[in-house]
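Researcher: We plan to redesign the surface later, but first we want a full-length starting point. Tokens attached.
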């Protein structure tokens, strides 16, 4: 049993490392603001088009930043879930057949 627990911890660590190397992004207004995050849902960078920044007002900038961050984090969540599901399937096999699926 401890072997399985140790293996699970090891696999989770490997997945976390892999997710650190995966980059996803959220972009709004045709790329005027782009937010990059990794698969572990950690923001890596924010890029704001300089021309847009000159013209935008505070409220517009704040609203678009929130949208871009949420898009990036949604992409990161999707990647994260897919990687975790793949790890679980590899560790435990496809158990769906046991439950009539």
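Model: Full-length starting sequence:
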């Amino acid at each position: 049993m401890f072997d399985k627990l140790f293996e699970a911890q090891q696999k989770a660590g490997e997945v976390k490392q892999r997710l650190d190397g995966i980059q996803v992004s959220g972009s709004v207004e045709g790329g005027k603001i782009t937010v990059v995050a990794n698969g572990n849902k950690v923001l890596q960078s924010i890029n704001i088009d300089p021309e847009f920044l000159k013209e935008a007002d505070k409220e517009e900038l704040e609203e678009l930043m929130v949208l871009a961050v949420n898009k990036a984090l949604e992409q990161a969540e999707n990647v994260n879930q897919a990687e975790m599901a793949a790890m679980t399937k590899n560790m435990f096999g496809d158990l769906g057949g046991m439950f009539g699926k």
